[in-house]
Specification:
The chain has 265 residues and is an alpha+beta fold. It contains six helices and 17 strands. It comes from Alicyclobacillus sendaiensis PA2.
Length: 265
């Protein structure tokens, strides 16, 4: 027997916190009876569980990596019809969702999964999972700027946690472009851009190159891939979870959106 919200999250309905909200709102039923108690335990192999009257489908977890281009929204759909990252993935049986998001004008590594609990744990501040960005800024990243990034930058929503900084290329002058690797474990809105802008270093280009133990590597822009078995184990361990059996997504044999790229193995 498992807690109802955990079963919903594992089925890919939503994160565990969102599933708790669905239960409290009376939108979840077990064997036809509405359940609003968060501590309720169920046997998904024997009981009929539904959300808004629609039975859930138990899915085995899968995890994908996408090298997100700029000018795509990190969301499942958009009411204005703008391009979303889901258009870059192939049709598959599993219902995957982005793990967090990257800004419209930010590129790089974006994870997708149908494991709601994994998503919640990866994004929870208490896990302090490191994200690494390649940042191109206009201006000289001097010793004072590096110290501020490593000690914490004062933003309108509080001082940032200490970051790891590596200057890969210094700017030729105030109008030149410097390239920096920045590693942070927080996930505030547009945090990296705001940190550098606070220091008078406007961001020209921003790309995430690693999320915890998963790195972008040589994956081309717009391409996706599945995790390797080693990445699979390391990612679940970073989230404080026992790794489930490794599996690949089930790709449907349907015509892909013309913008959807091929995978790399």
């Amino acid at each position: 027997m498992e807690r109802l919200q955990k079963v919903l999250a594992h089925a890919g309905v939503a994160s565990r916190r969102k599933c708790e909200e669905l239960i409290r709102a009376g939108r979840v039923s077990v064997d036809g009876q509405t359940v609003t108690e968060l501590g309720a335990k169920v046997d998904p192999s024997r009981q009929r569980i539904a959300v808004d009257g629609v039975p859930i489908e138990l899915e085995q977890p899968v995890v994908l990596v996408l090298n997100k281009p700029v000018a795509y929204l990190s969301t499942v759909s958009d009411p204005l019809g703008r391009r979303t990252v889901m258009q870059l993935l192939p049709p598959m049986r599993e219902r995957v969702y982005p793990v967090g998001r990257l800004d419209y004008d930010t590129s790089g590594l974006l994870l997708f999964t149908n494991d709601g609990e994994l998503t919640q744990r990866l994004l929870h501040p208490s896990r302090e999972i490191e994200k690494v960005y390649r940042v191109s800024v206009r201006g000289i990243v001097d010793r004072e700027a590096r110290r501020a990034l490593m000690e914490g930058v004062e933003l309108e929503d509080g001082v940032t946690a200490p970051a790891k900084v590596e200057v890969l290329r210094q700017a030729d002058g105030e109008d030149g472009v410097a390239v920096v690797h920045l590693a942070i474990h927080e996930g505030r809105n547009r945090q990296v851009r705001r940190m550098f802008e606070r220091l008078g270093l406007p961001v020209v280009r921003l790309k995430r190159i690693a999320f915890g133990p998963v790195s972008l590597g040589h994956l081309k822009t717009g391409e996706w891939r599945v995790l390797t078995p080693d990445e699979w184990v390391a990612l679940y361990q970073a989230a404080g979870m026992a790794p489930p059996p490794y599996r690949r997504p089930t790709i449907r044999r349907e015509p892909q959106d013309k913008r959807a790229p091929r995978t790399r193995s």
